[in-house]
């Protein structure tokens, strides 16, 4: 008879709780992306209706063969007022959307260091919990001033910056190499968080007001934190409910790659590591493309295609469910390729990187030229977001491959660089579309994202590797060398002491004989 512990392993429980944790992380990160549509005073008409036409538009052919369009989106009556909305232009909206990332990069590396010292349970858990607590303050401070909202978002981003890199330390201690791709797919709980957040915020905002969206997402974050405290432990050795079989399996498969003792960090080797920088470059391109799709999609469909908040929420959230599904099954396939030795670890990572960055870039490029066709825009936006799910078997897993002992530090280091996409991209969008919400301007936005994605894929395909780096055991080797040196230096002291004792004994014997 199979025991309950064997049916649901501690690694399975960890996967589910981590999955929900990343979902909460993205809920608190992107709730403003959609809610801002309900917070600002809408335009009198969708900006692109002067260029595009919908199925209900009246179309007439002029003598020169062009089509004159009568927009189907009616202008807003002059007597309608929006007392609870704000007159923010595109530039100000870009500031609000990008503020989360202004200092988000600053806590990435400390997140990895703190996890190594205090454990992922404390760092990851508090990162989510404190971000949720700050979320309760958003409605009050937003009504006070735009800059108060920006300040609070900056603070949220700073606190939440520790979350992603801290998890890599737990992954390295819990998950054997042939299971990493699948486990890292739990990080894509962020996609489900995004998929839930957009329609949830749309429904809550349209029913109870935009401030309710922040209260609901923050409350969910506080509830998750309670389950995290009960279910999660930093290593198999610390888990009180793990079976001996599972603990032995994990430790046997991680033996030699993970050092549980506090070790020195090879900062110089990390900074000068070509494989690390190449992986960061690949992560940059995928991050720029994904953040552009995730952050700007609500505004794009609202301003360009004139969709209301509920339709925008559904369309913006749906791709992230597909991203999670794609990530899960793609990662299983990658782990199978590795365990059966049908492909080398490096080639599996290259294949995954090509899919999550290169293929994503191609879909974004097609999206850029979808123009006035909302159906095509939806299809390629969904496709571009979904294939990014391959990142669980790509750069995210590759940092653990390069150095299990310092994986959290590598991801934190990567985050310091890549997170700049989070506020550069909204700033670029704000500059390009400020008082100029046209199809051609949005085309430039998507072309920039596509170029970043495709270029990073090419770099990794040419130069990327997943081989464990020699400096992974730097701390362990340094400790062992130090111990050997202590033995060598201690040996002469012992011999010298013994010699002195023997000399004294000899002298005493000599004196006795003389007497």
List keywords for this structure.
515 residues, mainly alpha, two-stranded antiparallel ribbon, 2 strands, 2% strand, globular
Secondary-structure class: mainly alpha
- Write down the overall mean pLDDT: 79
Span from first to last CA? 85 Å
Q: Looking across the biggest beta sheet, what order are the strands in? A: 1-2
| Helicity level | over 70%
Largest sheet, described in full?
Answer: 2 strands, antiparallel
Order of helices and strands: HHEEHHHHHHHHHHHHHHHHHHHH
Query: What's the number of helices?
Result: 22
Shape: globular
The rounded Rg comes to 28 Å
Poorly predicted regions are 1-5, 53-81, 478-482, 488-496
Percent strand: under 5%
Total number of strands: 2
